[in-house]
Design goal:
It is built from 21 helices and 13 strands. By secondary structure, the chain is α/β, with parallel strands linked by helices. The chain has a seven-stranded parallel beta sheet with strand order 3-2-1-4-5-6-7, sandwiched between helices. A six-stranded parallel beta sheet has the order 10-9-8-11-12-13, with helices on both faces.
């Protein structure tokens, strides 16, 4: 069987590493399609994809084809307006993000016009969404991409993340549908449905992590529930199998900490969530300094891999930045380093980070600060509500309360353990803690390729 995996960027490959490797191991011909301009190393690189291609020579990388003919201006405008319309529709929880997401694509003059009462009212309406979809349906698929599909003749196309601005994913799906090739879109991350664009060409199936994201796809993106399939989060499958690569004492000594004391791990957020995070960290350090040195925990700060951090100003004998420059957990090596820092910590602090998900998998108590300094990256971001609804994160309204709650956890008062376990069950592995999301997704892809429902994934697994 031939399968096309279409990704917007090489750096996104690692989300589906186990899925792709499983499909290949089963004997299927897999081609990964993405722009081939990614670097070999660094946090924004395609190093996980490069590792795959070196280890599995039967898998081929195809440089994504840009449309042979340049789309007219109105096509780009249509898709930008459609993305904008998704944000401002009544069902969207954070409409104020629209200018942030679309601002670089539309002029300030256009944005001001879209805010005029009559225009905004129409843009928010169902009639506008129907009109935009109708106009999109009249954009013909690109000839070069159609020719590529005719040559490769895959039985299924799998595209992700799809809701970013890269038009070629839309073009590949449009071409696949024109040729009656089943098309699957897969949600890359838990914030994509509320913080990115929309699906300009609806795939035959949409794969999401859990039922909460099913609801977002239906309410915000007008998907029919029966076209959505819950797989769990395949990107986190390795976290259920890992074990520490070193003991706690050795880990602490290696990064310069006293192994006789517990440490708290601070996980930094992206720039869009917390732009001046070093100020927040310095405030946190100053409040921990009020704790008696005999009982005060050490603090390990893990930088966000996509955000520069000047750490020289606050590192000392009990505060360490590790690893320097951040490190994306997209390979076995970088994931192991991150796992060790989580496994050996006493608690995790952050603003709004995917690190809270990994922390829950490792059953680590989590804390956050919610006040005027952090609200823009929390309450004004819809995906943060998933964490709050789960109730497994201790919330403090100020730094003294945050330090106090942290010290209580270190002393053994872990009150949210049951909620953490439930969150992992519901949000990350809804098919069961012992059921790999990658296994579910692999079977579901093959089911769709064979003209069956993705819910037949178990039967496909048995057949193979």
């Amino acid at each position: 069987m031939k399968i096309a995996i279409v990704l917007s960027q090489g750096k996104h490959y690692f989300y589906y590493d186990r899925v792709v490797r499983s499909l290949h191991a089963m004997g299927h011909e897999v081609r990964v399609v993405c722009p081939a301009d990614f670097s070999e190393d660094g946090n924004k690189s395609g190093r996980a994809l490069i590792k795959l291609l070196k280890e599995e020579t039967g898998i081929k990388l195809e440089n994504a084809l840009l449309p042979r003919r340049k789309n007219p201006y109105w096509v780009g405008l249509l898709r930008n307006l459609r993305d904008y319309a998704i944000f401002v529709r009544p069902e969207h929880p954070t409409p104020y993000i629209a200018p942030i997401w679309i601002g670089k694509e539309l002029s300030q003059k256009m944005l001001r016009r879209l805010e005029l009462p009559g225009i905004r009212s129409f843009i928010r309406s169902k009639a506008a969404r129907i009109l935009f979809a109708w106009l999109e349906s009249h954009i013909q698929p690109d000839d070069a991409i159609v020719d590529w599909f005719k040559e490769f003749q895959p039985q299924v196309v799998f595209a992700s993340p799809f809701v970013f601005r890269e038009d070629f994913e839309v073009e590949y799906t449009k071409a696949a549908k024109a040729l009656k090739i089943p098309a699957i879109a897969s949600l890359l991350s838990w914030d994509n449905l509320t913080s990115k664009g929309t699906y300009h060409v609806k795939p035959d199936r949409l794969f999401v992590w859990n039922q909460s994201l099913v609801a977002e796809a239906v309410q915000i993106h007008d998907f029919e529930a029966q076209r959505i399939f819950v797989t769990g989060a395949p990107v986190y499958d390795p976290w259920f199998d890992l074990s520490p690569s070193t003991d706690r004492a050795s880990f602490c000594v290696a990064i310069g900490l006293d192994p006789s004391k517990p440490y708290v791990l601070y996980l930094c957020s992206s720039k869009s969530i917390s732009e001046r995070e070093t100020d927040l960290i310095q405030m946190l350090i100053s409040h921990f300094e009020s704790v008696d040195e005999k009982h005060r925990p050490a603090l390990v700060v893990r930088p966000h891999p996509f955000k520069d951090m000047e750490a020289d100003g606050f590192e000392n004998e009990w505060v360490k930045v590790f690893p320097k420059g951040g490190q994306r957990p997209d390979t076995d090596e970088t994931r192991s380093t991150y796992y060790d820092s989580l496994y050996h910590c006493a608690a995790v602090i952050g603003v709004n980070t995917t690190g809270f998900l990994e922390s829950a998998i490792l059953d680590k108590p989590c804390l956050t600060l919610v006040n005027s300094t952090t609200r823009a990256g929390q309450e004004m971001r819809a995906h943060f509500k998933h964490l709050m609804d789960a109730g497994y994160i201790e919330v403090a309204k100020d730094f003294p309360e945050l330090v106090s709650k942290t010290m209580q956890i270190i002393s053994g008062a872990d009150l949210q353990k049951d909620n953490r376990v439930k969150f992992v069950n519901d949000f990350i592995r809804p098919r069961g803690l012992d059921v790999s999301a990658s296994t579910v997704m692999t079977g579901a892809i093959l089911a769709v390729a064979n003209g069956r429902k993705p819910s037949d994934w178990k039967e496909m697994e048995k057949a193979l």
